[in-house]
Amino acid sequence: MSDKRFQGYRGEGKAVLERYGVGVWSEVDVESTRGRFAGLILPRSETSDDKHVVLKLENGYNVGIAADSISNITEHGRREAHYKIPEKEFPTNPAKPHVTLFGTGGTIASRLDYRTGAVIPAFSPGELYGSVPELADLCNLRTEKLYGVFSENMGPEQYIRLAESIGEEIAKGVDGIVIGHGTDTMHHTSAILTFMVQDSPIPIVMVGSQRSSDRPSSDAAINLINAVKAAAEGDIAEVVVCMFGPTSDQYCLLHRGTRVRKMHSSYRSTFRTVGDIPLAMVDQEKITHLRDDYKRRRSDRSVKINTAFEEMVTILYYYPGMRPDVLDAIVDKGYRGLVIAGTGLGHVNKPVYPALKRAADKGMHVYMTVQTLWGYVQMYVYETGREIMELGVVPASNMLPEVAYMKLCWALGQTDDRDEVRRIMLTPIADETTEREPYNGYLIYQGAIPEVQEFLRTIKR
Amino acid sequence: MPFTFKPFHLMSPEDYAGIGLRCGLEVHRQLITRTKLFCRCPAGRYSKDYDAEILRHMRPTLSELGEYDGTALMEKKTRKNIHYRVHHGTVCTYEFDDTPPFFMADDALDAAIELALLLRLNLVSELHIARKQYLDGSIPTGFQRTTILGVNGWIPYKGRKIGIRQLGLEEDACREVSDIGHDRVYLTDRLGMPLVEPVTEPDMRTPQEAADVAQIIRKLCRSTGKVRTGIGTVRQDVNVSVKGGTRVEVKGVPQIWRIPRLVYNEARRQCALLHIRDELRRREISPETLEHRADEVTRIVAKTRYQPLRSAIEQGLRVKCVVLKGFAGLLNEETQEHTTFAKEFSDRVRVIACLTHLPNMAHSDTASESLYGRDWQKLGRRMSAGSNDALILVWGNEADTETACQEVVLRAREAATGVPSDTRQALKDGTNGFERVLPGADRMYPDTDLPPLAIPQDRVERIRKRLPEFVWDREARYRAMGLSDEMVEALSLSPRGELFSRLVDELGTDPTFAAVVTCQRMKAFRRSGLNPELLRDDEVMEVFKAYAHGRLAREGVVKVLRRTLETRTREPDREVMVADVLQALNAKPLSDEEMAAQVKAAVDRLDDHRFSTSAKRHRHLMGVLMNDLAGRADGGRVAQMVAVTLGTHGDCSASAEGRA
């Protein structure tokens, strides 16, 4: 008997199935000390215990029967489920733009996995189209699955291949690129792609979903439709993130890849442009630009791909009472770059100073960002800031910590020269540092305040 | 031949047996819990106020086994904007699907296990949460989190067993505020409340049996003391089928007394639809051979005098006409009381095409009530329809009238098949209307947000130990004690049932007196603003013990209880014991000598000249005395003593009754 017959079962659960000669997808009657149950034996999640057998009852409900309560199982048939999205061939229309959709995984393309009982990224982008036929109104779509990983498993290897694949697609002459990506680290990927792929002639739009596509309330379809629209018809030839704007089903926002951040663990409107305003709003009817300082779409095919990446870089999130040995350990492990997320305007405590000095002496590149996320590093205001700079720490303006991390990886992948690294870090490519923060770039409304409540009551947020 | 059906009051059980009526019930009942089922929002707080509105749309998804559900596809056609009203006091980000679920509320699960045991179900060992899709928007996630605790139970009824198919535990949905055109508005306060849902087998054979069994389930639920009562806390769905018909679910019946007429009308509707199908067959119309044509006719009817159509045209809306070949005369067939077959079409057009402004349809079988004959003639010519054909007009915008025409044809095709599988809405007049296509097992999907939850045997045993007596056994016992029907019903649903038994068994209290105090008095306390739950059963026992041992007059029992509650309600910080109240009231029964002395003193204080008759004097005296002696002496005894003292023995005792 193959493992498939007992998919996910082990221990007592598997033993009882073996004892009565039944397996997964057997239609059975079970007799137990808690009575009789009739249904279809389903695979068991591998992370669940080994003491229960899962049945799908006639009414569609699943239930677990304790293995040690079972006194008999009789099989009277077999019925295997095949989970399949209706796959249709994408219609081609020469008049419509050509878009390439890269799949990397994440919940925009996911389905149920019986083995783990969890949602896994398993829809091929082709199947994805089967469930979102609206895409055909926008473009001719080509799909390519690069990876099937959760976004936390994205890393340098994936970034580099993605950047190279984008370069190849641009050379082929596509009109826009969409990248399906898990949301957790989407802003990390959008940042590094901004550095690795420069002066693209076409939009490169990252998209994901906060509710998997197996839910009727999923934001996957609407995000994908809007992302494809931005890629096919949009004028913004930059790396952007396209995700739900308000918590209501109304429009998506296009965020610049270096200023965007996931700000809530579960809200669908989780992505926010930090310290600035988004580029545009997109819905199925139109793209509404919110600013005009973006790079325009071009008809040429030139693009700069630079996939340099140094992995020995890390982030240190400062906390009061931090001891210098943490920093010493990082230095001793051979790290070449460090981004500190400091308090307030960019501070760490005095006991860490000697370790900072030692790091600088060993040639480490240390950059200061702020854990407040909004606002600039300003190390001149207080004496302590000036002392820290004297220890070789470079203030990174209003660069977000994760963006500074990605950029330092990229910079150190190109050179070890202190001044050159510093020049790369502090010369903005796409607003990772900005010269000014607009008055409406920092908006975290506080609930319960009358005018905010009034706003919430009248505006579908 | 037109279809006929006996009126409701003339239908006998034999008549129902003749049409092969079968009924089943699904009863949804809210539980008394601290929080909602899957989040920590407070349970049972309802308010129409709201702080914010959220807009969502629903999209059908595939089932676990890879199928699209029919209901899901129907809702997709309606293209509704769903507006949710949220209030910060009743809803958190879980309800509107921006936070994953928390673990299931333990108190809800315990209550559901208790009910599962009372329904004699085979308990499952491990709960798996399922997502049951609802694309009408009544739940922002698009699905209800639901699970079943057991299958294959039964309850006794008239010497037979009514099968209980399953018991579910699930979250309640939103309350609908309005549904006009493409906009549906919901209140979210009730969303996520824990519900138990016992489902019976289709074992009831008459409308009355369905109501009787609903009563038994109601009492069984209430006997646990763990279900909410009152408007909106319970909703019955009735499943009805007749021989040759289909299982149809009549949803959301708020009161049990409405069930019989609803069942009657649904049975009648199915018989009528079967009759129409047979007639269509006679006319050689089948789902495959059905001929139809639809076209825009706005110009043809531009000058109509039929007001609804006229104003639609004035608003720039379009009018479309569907010809159903060979359907002439059928649309006027009665399907339910005061309802014709035409309503089956009008309902679909309203629900699916969102043409919600009524009337939303006109048809050629009721020519005189809508358009003039000459309008119909023009339409008939334009659509090449003959006298055997039916014409149906709908009006609205382009997209909606397109959907409406398709739905009309779909419904006509179903008519040639028989009774469609619908979920229908219970209406106040006892009839029902289309709500949605009956969903199948395809809308179930395992919830991947929560792991399975084992129900270990010790948890079951702990609950089994404190299981209430079966409510029907309890009722039989109370009846045998000679209690009135009203008292039997009240007591068998009272959480003080065990207290009552102890009062009667351990202390020998008169059952009626014990029932009056444990049920009626407790209710009266609540009505007067006191919380009777502040009195523990053993405290009530203590008071009755004092009465049984002659330390407290019968009248004093209620007085002590009330005084204790009053103090606890007014001064929640003060720890007041029943014993203290007993002592303070000094409600020990008066001896004859003590009472004689009291009466004499009162008589001495009396100003005789104030009273024109001895009866009035007697009444005044009783008033004064009972005020002084309340709780220490029986009114009858006092009256007698007064009569003796005044020398008017026997003439006024009646007036003293009932003052205790």
Strand content of chain A: 15-25%
Number of helices of chain A: 11
> What fraction of the residues of chain B are assigned to beta strands by DSSP?
15-25%
Q: Which sheet architecture does the biggest sheet of chain B show? A: 11 strands, mixed
CATH superfamily assignment of the largest domain in chain A?
Answer: L-asparaginase, N-terminal domain
What's the helical proportion of residues of chain A? 10-25%
Structural notes for this entry:
The complex is a heterodimer of chains A (461) and B (660). Chain A is α/β, with parallel strands linked by helices and 461 residues long. Chain A has 3 domains: 76 residues, SH3 type barrels; 208 residues, 3-Layer(aba) Sandwich (Rossmann fold); 113 residues, Rossmann fold (3-Layer(aba) Sandwich). Chain A has 11 helices and 23 strands. In chain A, the strands form 6 sheets. Chain A has an 8-stranded mixed beta sheet, sandwiched between helices. Chain A is globular and about 80 Å long. Chain B is of the alpha+beta class. In chain B, a hairpin with a 6-residue loop joins strand 12 and strand 13. The C terminus of chain B is likely disordered. Chain B contains 21 helices and 23 strands. In chain B, helix 4 runs antiparallel to helix 5, helix 7 packs across helix 9 and helix 18 crosses helix 20. Strand 4 of chain A pairs antiparallel with strand 5 of chain B, so a sheet runs across the interface.
